[in-house]
Amino acid sequence: MDRQRTDKNEETSAQGRPTLKTLAFMTGLGVTTVSRALKDAPEIGAETRRRVQLVAKQIGYRPNRAGVRLRTGRTNVISLVLNTDREIMSFVSDIIYGVSEVLAETPYHLIVTPYSRSQDPMEPIRYLVETGSADGVIISRTQPNDPRARYMLEHGMPFATHGRTDMGLVHPYHDFDNHAFAMEAVRRLASMGRRRLALLSPPPGLTYYGHTLNGFADALSEVGASEIPFNTVSIDQSIEQIRTRTAQLMRRENRPDGFVSSGAAATLALVAGIEDAGLRLGHDVDVVSKQSSDLLHLFRPQLLVVNENFRLAGSELARSVLGWIGGAAPGSLQGLSAASHVLSLSQAVLV
């Protein structure tokens, strides 16, 4: 009965939208044959399958999602859950591009599920799980003990995290090696004679905050440099807050002569604060920053950068979720991007 209802849904979709009946008319085949050809049914000849699928692509045919769900129990949807208050636009656009690029070769579609600072981060996750609105979920801003990951594991929802957890549970993830980034940044500053270093850190509470902090501390010990505390702000603060507090810090007698910054947008504010204090970048102080695009070279050529590829992260996260849906072991779907060497911006443009 459900099969009959599915075929009926496909045959009678909204006026103007190509349907199974449209494909049947254009190919001279029956509706049932067309439906099976689109699903690569082995009883349909290879040439017929190719012809039907080519015509479907040419006229923009898309299967009716309600029908697909009735037939298979799946939505063919992957949801990317994003905090709209916190995620910067370069991250959003790049990670969406990476996910979409992978899904384009599959029957799956991407939906973005936003939530705001005023919401409980669990709300969109509960909604997706309880309503069965997606077959898989991708989350960011991962915490060491992340209740979203635990909830989805308990409810059997395939997912992947941008960043790692630290709660002894195995799940897919893709992460950037922020410990290595911080160590490499400190080493580079020390090689330039910088001895008093400050860290503009990730937001406390997220897993990569601890990774970055540990890498920074390990490298300080290795090179014999000292830390100038700068824990009144993180890259989550507003540009104006970062700028003001940087200027305050740089007007002190025991000011830093080097900074490690965890985010490109925050680096813009950091440099503005340095200059507000009457100091010169590349002369009085040097900055090593992460960036995800070639933005910083348009701002100050004296900046030193390490590139983090969010498009790659999106692609790997999409592959991980699809792999779990396809039956792969979650522990085999984990990836860590290596931090590249610190580059001058003239080098970064060429990479």
UniProtKB/TrEMBL annotation:
Protein's recorded name: LacI family transcriptional regulator
Record flagged with keyword Cell cycle: no
Keyword tags: DNA-binding, Transcription, Transcription regulation
Domain HTH lacI-type: 18-72
Domain of life: Bacteria
Molecular function per GO: DNA-binding transcription factor activity; transcription cis-regulatory region binding
InterPro entries in alphabetical order: HTH_LacI, LacI/GalR-like_sensor, Lambda_DNA-bd_dom_sf, Peripla_BP_I
Pfam families assigned: LacI (PF00356), Peripla_BP_3 (PF13377)
